[in-house]
Fold this protein.
Amino acid sequence: MKQLEFLIDKLGNRILENVTYQNEQFDTLTIRRLTERTLIRNVQFLNCSSVGAGMIRKGVFLENVIFSNIDCGDTLFISSESIVNEVRVSGRHPARLVIEPDDNDNYVMQEYSKSEMLIDISEFQGFAVIIGLPGCNIKKNDRQHITIKASWKDEVDWGSLGIGPVSFWRLNLKSLGIKNASEGVFSLPSPEHRQR
């Protein structure tokens, strides 16, 4: 099985850059910050798979990285406490993309310029949950994804709208509160579940 080929620079940083992995099988795609800095830059994972989970943990830098049709179990997890810039997730696999903070209690959402594109999920066909990154910095498919703001919990009279506490909207608002995030991007429910 293929291993990720990190190099160590003079400062002790782990760097993986300028590599395309295509149709490779990895034993794991779990990447943690083990040194001062772990950087993945200009890397493509195309139609790859892993026996273990796909997880990018807190503190890893991802810049211009493509994950296309990655079979890493049912979920690719990326910490919203990692540093992401121009990351694209596309295709049918994995079934779920979850981006959320590792540390719920101490998480503080960062601010970004509105022109920065952090994550592109516009061609991802799976189910996405992105908590803790601004919706304006995520390229979405408006037919599949929606930004929800935590402030809506108090600004909207959900009862008068007939929207109960276990609806799509209110469950995702609760998730934002638990993760201490002011907004998130979520896949819309299937048409048969949209009335809930």
Observations:
- The longest helix spans residues 168-178.
